[in-house]
Structures are given as C-alpha cells and as structure tokens.
Amino acid sequence: MCEYLHSIILKSANHTLPARTVGNDSTPKLPKDLEILIQHRRFVSRVVHSIRILRKYPSTFSSSHNAKWFSHLTCL
Q1: Is the dihedral of CA 58, 62, 68, 71 positive or negative?
Q2: Are 14 and 22 in contact (CB under 8 A)?
Q3: What is the residue extent of each domain of the chain?
Q4: So which domain of life are we looking at (predicted)?
C-alpha cells in the first residue's frame, strides 16, 4: 500500500513539475557521535543482559566469565 501511494505521489509530482525529477535516492548518514553512542548502548545492554542471567542462574558463573568481562571493563 505504501509503495503504491509513493509511486502515485512521484508520478503526480513528475507530471506537475516536468522540469524536475522527484525521488529520494539519498541515504541518510548517522553523525559519528551518534554511531558511537549506539555502539556503547549495545555494549551496555549486552552487559546488563549477562548480569541478569548471572543473577537468575548463579551456578553458570565461572572464572572465564570473570576474565572476559574484566577485559571489557578495563577498556571502558
């Protein structure tokens, strides 16, 4: 349905404004700061997920988990 409406809008715009070609071929780019913020958010959500699982199933905690997260936390 949306594609149909989109094509009708483009056809009518091209018919009304024949000197201009109407379309949206550009792809928006994220600012560098926003990209970094999204990456940090994903990382933090993975850490929170792991903490919740460890609280729910404490027997799954091992020294390998400790070493893995310790290396990540030192990077922060």
Answers
A1: positive
A2: yes
A3: 30-76
A4: Eukaryota
DSSP codes, the chain = -HHHHHHHHHHHHHHH-TTS-----------HHHHHHHHHHHHHHHHHHHHHHHHH-GGG--HHHHHHHHHHHHH-
Handedness of CA 40, 46, 52, 58 (dihedral sign): negative
What string of DSSP letters covers 3-23?
HHHHHHHHHHHHHH-TTS---
Res 75: pLDDT: 54
